[in-house]
Design goal:
With 314 residues, the chain is mostly helical. Helix content is 76%, strand content 0%. α1 crosses α4. The chain is globular, with a radius of gyration of 19 Å.
Length: 314
């Protein structure tokens, strides 16, 4: 199978599935403790993935160095990032949350430029990046219109910016780490470690007592576990190993569009004419960035096919 097919499917998965998770998180943030949302989704996702690996008799062993790597990535990209996103979503709409998280490519670009051996986009890629953030600024200005900057909103915005930085740091580190374990094995251990840590934090903070365990909460948690965590992050890890980081980062342009549209349709969040214009600009910018033809990694032949990674069968 051509490399373009699995890469294309992985990109579509990250674009659409992760965009929809902002709506599920916004719903859950009103019912469960932020750390428990992270803990449950990752424990469930890692249990499904682990069962799949064991039934297929695939090795789940890691070297000593890989244990430290997956632990670091799990705590940074899952425990820190996702818990803060859950916290911010309690006060802000799904669309606005996605817009603030879309600042990730800026932090990735800064980190990549600052680190030795880092990569940078060509002029076409940078043009698409700046144009994309102009569209995001238009979206954000309309989303903030009429909202008073209360202390809760300010803390939520700060939490989301820190969450974006955490994900950017994890992405850059993941790109530079050398792992023999497959993306599914490494992401499974990351989710298990992060999920267990988040559950512990949630319990210690009294989350079990303050949370509302409704049927909808469990369904939304399962959606986040299967589609947001397992399918989405496995695709993301696959892309990190097969395409340039600047290309993977373009998901941050599409996720807000999906979140705003679903928030409008499912949560009745307001959508205005200027937001449609902003989303059109963002979509065009994504096309420009992708058209800049980023190079594939030096070797992709030994990487697992993303179709196999997403086929969770007994």
């Amino acid at each position: 199978m051509s490399e373009r097919v699995p890469i294309g499917l992985a990109i579509a998965s990250v674009y659409i599935l992760w965009g929809s998770t902002f709506v599920a998180i916004r719903y859950l943030a009103q019912l469960l403790h932020p750390a428990l949302i992270s803990g449950l989704r990752y424990v469930i996702a890692s249990a499904i993935a682990m069962a799949y690996l064991l039934l297929r008799r695939r090795s789940i062993r890691l070297s000593g160095r890989e244990w430290s790597q997956v632990t670091l990535l799990g705590l940074v990209m899952f425990t820190t990032n996702t818990t803060l996103v859950n916290y911010g979503s309690k006060a802000l709409s799904a669309g606005l949350t996605a817009l603030l998280i879309s600042s990730i490519p800026i932090f990735i670009a800064v980190l990549e430029a600052a680190l030795p051996g880092g990569t940078s986009m060509n002029k076409m890629g940078w043009a698409g990046t700046f144009t994309g953030f102009a569209g995001l600024a238009l979206l954000m200005s309309r989303s903030l219109h009429g909202q008073s900057l209360t202390s809760a909103n300010a803390l939520a915005c700060a939490a989301l910016i820190i969450a974006a930085i955490a994900w950017a740091v994890g992405s850059v580190l993941s790109k530079r780490m050398k792992m023999k374990a497959s993306p599914l094995v490494s992401s499974t251990w990351q989710m298990l470690i992060a999920g267990s840590t988040s559950m512990l934090i949630g319990v210690m903070c009294g989350g079990l007592r303050t949370s509302h365990w409704t049927r909808g909460a469990w369904l939304a948690t399962l959606y986040l576990a299967v589609f947001g965590s397992l399918a989405g992050y496995t695709s993301y890890t696959y892309l990190l190993r097969n395409v340039r980081l600047s290309t993977v980062a373009t998901y941050a342009y599409v996720n807000p569009i999906v979140a705003v549209l679903l928030g409008w349709g499912l949560l009745h969040e307001t959508l205005h004419g200027s937001e449609w214009v902003g989303m059109a600009i963002v979509l065009a910018s994504v096309a420009v960035v992708i058209a800049s033809r980023p190079r594939l990694a030096n070797s992709t032949a030994d990487q697992p096919n993303v179709l196999k990674l997403l086929a969770i069968k007994p």
